[in-house]
Design goal:
Number of domains of chain B: 1
Shape of chain A: globular
Number of strands of chain B: 4
Order of helices and strands of chain B: HHHHHHHEEEHHHHEHHHH
Largest sheet of chain B: 2 strands, antiparallel
Oligomer: heterodimer
Largest sheet of chain A: 2 strands, antiparallel
Chain lengths: 347, 372
């Protein structure tokens, strides 16, 4: 009994509830006629789609910059990569690689500026990140309208202004990762090997980074900035590195998302992209100032599992689609819980 | 004299910038002056009350109350009920406000208590809380109304038999406050009674600041530790500020919607927090200081921009969306800028205090961070 109590205290009551909720959904699936293989397959695809954006949260949490509500900046870098790659006429694997390359360059530049800004507002990062993200999405919306893109697949036909709101990547790099070595069983089960592999690969790289000297320094800044400074670590530089990493991962993350989703969403599309990623890592057990890769894996699996299963089960049982409302309550409830929790790792 | 003038420009930089921006945008938009003046007169009556709701939490040091959206939800629930019961005119509006009261008091208490658990990050907490409560609100309005909560008027329900329609017309109470005292000057309709209400609530705020609780609030806003040492119940005072703000937001939302004449059930409240906060900041307020003049200047400038930017965008590069995006950029950007300035100032003060503790040596070095 003591053991269970401590486990719940460590794991957090909301997380326990969410886990049981998801288990209940999976158990209910066969009873109400929802195909279990299809559900699991959908969940896996969504984990592959969203995983890297959740990973993008780790560096900034570790360096003490808090939850990166400004992930949209990284998403914008990814969108620039995607659209420019198509504009230059690259397709297939090459197109995807070029898109990633361009997105990383923009991500590094944006991340540097964004990190500089966040260094001047220590303690108030989260709210500022949110609104910096929002305003850059709007600036980019103006840019999408007036930038001289020419590719006929991307601009409005018949004399419209600027790029389309959604651009299909069909014929360029749709499902390029999802279908790479994909394992199909029956008609309804598909294991998106490529996407999951990339997710794991990036996670391993991050794990390695945080075990190098540089990564340890970043973590030290997040745990105790004064102590880190006393040991001769350049606090501001470590923070900028973490923000740049986060932004670049955001760019990569959205590209992986788009190849699976099949569309590039421009204009106001990236506005709320950060929130699901934030919610996912918190569901996994991260707090505002501590996150590990385990949190990323558990969180992405739980969150995407809920997003896939809730509408399926609710539609089958109640004939109502309450999934949107449940998604809003679960994800924001989780963020709220993290913000108000007295964390054990004192700041 | 010269330095005084410079100080005036520095302190009012935001307001001056927006006046210049609008001075350029109005001729570009080509909108007639009569139309703009009528719209601004209307919108002052429509929005000022909501913006005033933000003032007390700022005084209590809790920053911009993104949680005011909770009050707006309460106001909308009140309006949905009076529309269902078919109560029209002033009694309807009054009843909607009365129904909203207990809901907004409860929500305000909840919001204040949660913010007390997250001291130092009240704003982001309020911001997320607004999203969270929006989920619960949607659950009530879209699923509980018409099933658990009886709704008698079938025309208000969605075709599936429960849940409120996305758009509900408020014909019974449309502009009934604005038109209570009809007045027209030079072809311009003036919503006299709305202005009277705004004047009354402004007087309330000014008076409230001078009361014991108001003074306590200011003390808590200046320094929580000192206020606590002086025997002020810090947490209770903070909750009080949020409760009053939420209640005012609820009433403000009823006034706002009676002027518009329709509720967008799932969306009317969502943008209210952001628009009100942006308006207040454009009026020259900061995260720690805001006054009634800031409200009035802010609403005027923000809504002028609101009105002219789509047309200006269309005339400039032939796209109305450009102006629309620009307007949204300005709303988000001005909030970001105000927050940056506030945090920056706070950090500089902290560094100065630390330098003073060390004996005043090399105060500027600290601001650059730990290059040691």
């Amino acid at each position: 009994m003591e053991g269970i109590k401590r486990f719940i205290a460590d794991f957090g009551l909301p997380r326990v509830i969410i886990t049981f909720y998801l288990l209940a959904l999976f158990l209910a699936a066969p009873l109400v006629g929802v195909s279990l293989p299809a559900s699991i397959s959908d969940s896996l695809i969504r984990i592959g789609m969203n995983g890297i954006m959740v990973l993008a949260m780790v560096p900034m949490i570790q360096s003490g910059c808090g939850l990166n509500f400004g992930l949209s900046l990284g998403v914008i870098a990814g969108l620039l990569g995607a659209t420019l790659s198509i504009e230059f006429g690259f397709a297939g694997v090459l197109g995807f690689v070029v898109a990633i390359g361009i997105s990383q360059v923009f991500g590094a530049v944006f991340g540097y500026g964004y990190g500089k800004l966040l260094n001047r507002v220590k303690g108030g990062e989260m709210m500022i990140a949110t609104y910096v993200g929002f305003s850059s999405v709007m600036i980019m919306s103006i840019a999408w309208l007036i930038m001289p893109y020419k590719s006929p697949t991307m601009i409005w036909g018949f004399g419209g202004e600027g790029l389309r709101t959604t651009i299909s990547v069909e014929g360029f790099w749709r499902h390029i990762l999802d279908d790479f070595l994909a394992v199909r069983i029956g008609d309804s089960f598909k294991f998106p090997t490529g996407a999951i592999l990339v997710f794991v690969l990036v996670a391993v790289l991050i794990w390695v980074f945080f075990h190098l000297k540089l990564g340890t320094a970043v973590t030290a800044v997040g745990s105790n900035a004064t102590y880190a400074r006393a040991s001769g670590i350049n606090v501001n530089r470590m923070r900028i590195i973490s923000v740049m990493m986060s932004t670049m991962l955001g760019g990569l993350g959205i590209l992986v998302f788009e190849q699976s989703f099949g569309f590039i969403q421009l204009y106001e599309g990236p506005l709320y992209m950060a929130f699901p990623a934030v919610a996912a890592i918190l569901i996994g057990g991260a707090s505002v100032n501590k996150a590990t890769l385990v949190h990323v894996f558990i969180g992405t699996a739980l969150y995407q599992g809920i997003l896939t299963m809730t509408p399926a089960i609710f539609n089958a049982v109640l004939k109502v689609d309450m999934s949107d409302v449940i998604r809003i309550i679960v994800s924001n409830g989780m963020i709220l819980y993290a913000l108000t929790r007295k964390t054990k790792v004192a700041k | 004299m010269n330095s005084k003038l410079r100080l005036f420009f520095i302190e009012n930089a935001v307001v001056i910038l927006f006046i210049l921006l609008i001075a350029v945008a109005i001729p570009v938009s080509g909108l007639p002056r009569q139309f703009l003046m009528q719209e601004i007169l209307m919108r002052l009556g429509r929005n000022s009350f909501l913006v005033i709701a933000l003032l007390l939490p700022i005084m209590a040091g809790m920053g911009l109350n993104f949680g005011m959206v909770l009050g707006a939800m309460a106001g909308q629930i009140g309006l949905i009920f009076i529309m269902d019961w078919g109560i029209v005119g002033i009694p309807g509006v009054l009843l909607a406000m009365i129904i909203s009261l207990p809901i907004s008091i409860f929500l305000g208490w909840l919001c204040g208590s949660i913010m007390n658990m997250a001291k130092g990050r009240e704003m982001v907490t309020g911001f997320i809380l607004a999203f969270f409560m929006n989920g619960l609100y949607m659950m009530i309005v879209l699923y509980a109304m018409g099933t658990l909560i009886p709704i008698m008027n079938p025309e208000m329900l969605l075709s599936r038999g429960y849940g409120i329609r996305n758009v509900v017309g408020l014909d019974g109470v449309r502009q009934c406050i604005d038109n209570l005292i009809p007045l027209k000057i030079g072809g311009l309709k003036i919503p006299v009674f709305s202005y009277l209400i705004i004047a009354a609530v402004s007087c309330f705020i000014v008076w409230f600041r001078k009361t014991k609780i108001g003074q306590d609030m200011r003390a808590v806003g200046q320094d929580r530790a000192v206020a606590d040492a002086a025997g002020i119940p810090v947490e209770r005072t903070r909750i009080m500020a949020i409760v009053i703000s939420t209640v005012l937001a609820g009433i403000g939302q009823v006034i706002f919607l009676q002027n518009l004449g329709t509720i967008n059930t799932t969306a009317s409240h969502e943008q209210i927090g952001m628009f009100s906060i942006a308006a207040l900041l454009i009026g020259g307020a900061s995260v720690t200081r805001a006054s009634i003049p800031n409200v009035l200047i802010g609403v005027t400038l923000f809504h002028l921009l609101f009105l002219v930017s789509p047309m200006a965008g269309k005339n400039l590069i032939g796209s109305a969306m450009l102006g629309e995006y620009f307007r949204q950029f300005v709303s988000y950007g001005v909030i970001a800028m105000a927050l940056v300035l506030y945090e920056w100032k706070r950090m500089t003060q902290e560094h100065e205090a630390r330098a003073e503790l060390r004996g005043g040596a090399a105060p500027a070095k600290g601001a650059k961070g730990g290059a040691a």
